[in-house]
Amino acid sequence: MTRNKARIAVLISGNGSNLQAILDAAATGALAHGTVELVISSSSQAYGITRARDAGVPVDVVRRQEFATQAEFDDALSQIIDQYQIDLIVLAGYMNILSKQFVERYPNRIVNVHPSLIPAFSGPGFYGLKVHEAVVAAGVKVSGATVHYVTEVCDGGQILAQETVPVYETDTPQDVQKRVLTEVEHIIYPRVIEQLSKEIAGN
Ligand code: GRF
């Protein structure tokens, strides 16, 4: 589909600092080919909801526990996404599982950011601070973040961008988490989203 700008939905569960980086990129013009049309939160408590409202972006809360089956949850999510004519689904700290059926509806149209250098410290069980705890425990000297397409394989889709940060001997998992977030995720995610938006918008 050729459009002026790609229509983006950002799916969140928590703080939403990546959402903020994307909204900031839109505000400064760095995200020139995409527009954030919708934020979906898996929780009514997510601070990211406030960030979205402050930016004037509509928010919908879709809670998995309100649906009897994964299929009904998938359908509810799809209905909103299709209603807003979304071109690109951006997962930003989104904690719900998306089914194979859901991801297959949007081939190469769902992206995620993971706070490690995939395939290291990725896959089932590696989320949030657990990733950085494992990094520190392993004693690796570099970590980083990865932006990738989402497929039914957890953290398994094609890698779109990856950048590193050093890990120091004195680092706590929280230190690594902060460095990865602020020095990598917040930089590379808006950049990849702009790139994909440009391709989708066809200009
Ligand atoms: C980020 O570290 C992201 O890589 C991971 O969850 C965290 C979300 O942080 N998937 P935020 O909600 O964007 O601040």
From TrEMBL:
Gene Ontology biological process terms, A to Z: 'de novo' IMP biosynthetic process
Site-annotated residues for Raises pKa of active site His: D155
Gene3D superfamilies: Formyl transferase, N-terminal domain
Reaction equation(s) it catalyzes: N(1)-(5-phospho-beta-D-ribosyl)glycinamide + (6R)-10-formyltetrahydrofolate = N(2)-formyl-N(1)-(5-phospho-beta-D-ribosyl)glycinamide + (6S)-5,6,7,8-tetrahydrofolate + H(+)
Start and end residues of each Formyl transferase N-terminal domain: 7-193
GO cellular component: cytosol
Annotated residues for binding of (6R)-10-formyltetrahydrofolate: N112
InterPro entries linked to this entry: Formyl_transf_N (IPR002376), Formyl_transf_N_sf (IPR036477), GART (IPR004607)
Pathway annotation: Purine metabolism; IMP biosynthesis via de novo pathway; N(2)-formyl-N(1)-(5-phospho-D-ribosyl)glycinamide from N(1)-(5-phospho-D-ribosyl)glycinamide (10-formyl THF route): step 1/1
Enzyme class: transferase
One Pfam family from the record: Formyl_trans_N
EC number(s) from the headed UniProt entry: 2.1.2.2
Binding site for N(1)-(5-phospho-beta-D-ribosyl)glycinamide: G16, S17, N18
Keyword tags: Purine biosynthesis, Transferase
Domain of life: Bacteria
GO molecular function: phosphoribosylglycinamide formyltransferase activity
HAMAP family associated with the record: PurN
Similarity remark: Belongs to the GART family.
Function: Catalyzes the transfer of a formyl group from 10-formyltetrahydrofolate to 5-phospho-ribosyl-glycinamide (GAR), producing 5-phospho-ribosyl-N-formylglycinamide (FGAR) and tetrahydrofolate.
Identification of the protein by name: Phosphoribosylglycinamide formyltransferase
Lineage: Bacteria, Bacillati, Actinomycetota, Actinomycetes, Actinomycetales
Gene that encodes the chain: purN
